[in-house]
Amino acid sequence: KDLNLKSLFKLVQVWAWERFRDIRPEAREISKGEPRIAQWSCLNQRDKNNEKKSLSFDDFDWRPYTKPLENWNPPRFYLEEAMWMTVDDDLDDEFLSFARCVRSSQLVGIGFVEGYYPNRVAMQFGFSQDLPGLVSDHSSFTEKEAWE
Predict the structure, then answer these.
(1) pTM for the whole thing?
(2) Is 79 helix (H, G, I), strand (E, B) or coil?
(3) Would you say residue 20 lies in a domain?
(4) What is the superkingdom listed in this entry's lineage (predicted)?
(5) Domain count, the chain
(6) Distances in Å between the alpha carbon of 123 and those of 38, 63, 114, 116, 129?
(7) Domain-embedded: residue 48
(8) Which domain holds residue 43?
(9) Could you say which of 50, 66, 82 is where a domain stops?
(10) Tens digit of pLDDT per residue, the chain (148 long)?
(11) Residue 74 counted as domain residue
């Protein structure tokens, strides 16, 4: 049966190529300043008949973005080994920006406040995921209360 997908499936394909070495094509070298995803531009899947038998747990790369590439440096906060850090005035802008993105918070819109919990999906992006804890329901906050 044919499958009809209406989405940007290329991102799913790149996710798989980054993590499963046995099914990915040979990545191209990226030019200085290009994003990491450019290494997969204009490439084709390997032999499609070989996909199912070549997927193996041992060949899965859990943190592909920590690996160096020619002309690309991973962000300094994305390390192979986890470490504890305190978010304070001593951190540079790159770390502070990252800390703001991964912190649970309230997103304030026009007339509503929504919870933002990136920690719930951290493993999907190669990060260690927190154990679930008690999360207060702040959906009844006003915009002013959420900003405080």
Answers:
(1) 0.52
(2) coil
(3) yes
(4) Eukaryota
(5) 2
(6) 23, 10, 22, 16, 6
(7) yes
(8) 9-66
(9) 66
(10) 787 766 677 888 888 888 888 888 888 898 888 888 899 888 876 665 555 555 777 888 877 877 778 887 777 776 667 777 777 778 888 888 877 777 788 888 888 888 888 877 776 666 666 666 655 666 667 767 766 6
(11) no
